[in-house]
Amino acid sequence: MRILISVIFIFYVSLSGAQIRLNKLILAPNEKFVIEKSDILVVDTLVMRDSSSIILNLSKKDNFIHAKEVVVGTNCSIIGRGLNGRPGTAGEKGITARAPCRRGLPGANAADGALGQNATNLSFYSNNLTIEGSMIINLSGGDGGDGGKGGEGGDGGSGTRFCTAGDGGKGGNGANGAIGGNGGNLNLVCKNCGNLRVLLGQKLIIKNFGGAGGVGGHGGVGGQPGLGPEGDGKAGLRGFSGANAQQGKVGAVNLSRTY
Questions:
Q1: How far apart are CA 227 and CA 229, in angstroms?
Q2: pTM of the shown model
Q3: Distance CA 129, CA 66 (A)
Q4: Whose CB among 8, 85, 201, 252 lies 3.0–4.6 Å from 185's, allowing a Cys bridge?
Q5: What is the Cα–Cα distance from 161 to 231, expressed in whole angstroms?
Q6: How far apart are CA 257 and CA 132, in angstroms?
Q7: DSSP character string of the chain
Q8: Maximum Cα interatomic distance, the chain, rounded to a whole number of Å
Q9: Predicted confidence (pLDDT) at residue 214 exceeds the cutoff of 70
Q10: Of 144, 97, 139, nearest to 117 (Cα)?
């Protein structure tokens, strides 16, 4: 098992000439270390002071951290959470009739929300891992964007003695929410770290939930009817509301010790 893991890691390292190689990485309290232009961090000694964090490279599907000696303080974090999708734009309001007896124009349909971004996967290998306080690994997917609201229908024109007042325009349709991003997979392997499953939920906190699905936008309100001596118009119909989207998938977790 140990040989297989080493072979896999060496294979991935060989694919990237831009790996980050350090003898020591000591993060001060509240300091952020961002992995850029690479997906591999190799360090002999990694020390994370209280509330420090490592930001993974979200442009890469997989990130790798290989550290021989790791000491973690309190409330430290490794973050590879996907970004939330942007909300869809609302539809524009329909034009109100300017001439008498004319129907108001319908409101425009809204735009769908954007997909939540998938979290990155993380493989973390260590010889000696000591968590003095707590470490949070956040690989949750980003939330899907909400659908935009449909545009309101334009108002109908007023009536005259020669014609019935205009109807209000139909409201635009609300847009669909977007699917949440998938949670990332975590593969945490170490030689000397105690029982990882005992640490779970206390010193080791893993978040790799799927992102929440976006909420569908409401349909636009129909336009107001015109009024007139020969008869009033009809109110515009409301647009259809968009559909709510589903949550992203939860990532997998593999915790193991090698000797």
A1: 7
A2: 0.86
A3: 11
A4: 252
A5: 9
A6: 19
A7: -HHHHHHHHHHHHHH-TT-EEEEEEEEPTT-EEE--S-SEEEEEEEEE-TT-EEE--TTSSEEEEEEEEEEE-SSEEEE-PPPPPPPPPPPPPPPPP-STTPPPPPPPPPPPPPPPPPPPEEEEEEEEEEESS-EEEE-PPPPPPPPPPPPPPPPPPPPBTTBPPPPPPPPPPPPPPPPPPPPPPEEEEEEES--HHHHBTTTEEEE-PPPPPPPPPPPPPPPPPP--TT---PPPPPPPPPPPPPPPPPPPEEEEE--
A8: 95
A9: yes
A10: 144
Tokens matching residue 219: 């349909």
For residue 138, give every residue at least 6 positions away whose Cβ sits within 8 Å of its Cβ, in sequence order, or none: 77, 78, 79, 80, 81, 207, 208
Q: How confident is the model at residue 8 (pLDDT cuts 50, 70, 90)?
A: very low
Residue-wise pLDDT tens digits, 114-167? 999 999 999 999 999 999 999 999 999 999 999 999 999 999 999 999 999 999
- Rounded to whole angstroms, the Cα distance separating 112 from 205 reads 34
Q: Are 18 and 38 in contact (CB under 8 A)?
A: yes
CB 111 within 8 A of CB 149: no
- Convert the pLDDT of each residue in 58-114 to its tens digit: 999 999 999 999 999 999 999 999 999 999 999 999 999 999 999 999 999 999 999
In angstroms, the CA 233 to CA 157 distance is 8
Degrees to nearest 5, angle at CA 94 with 108 and 159: 145
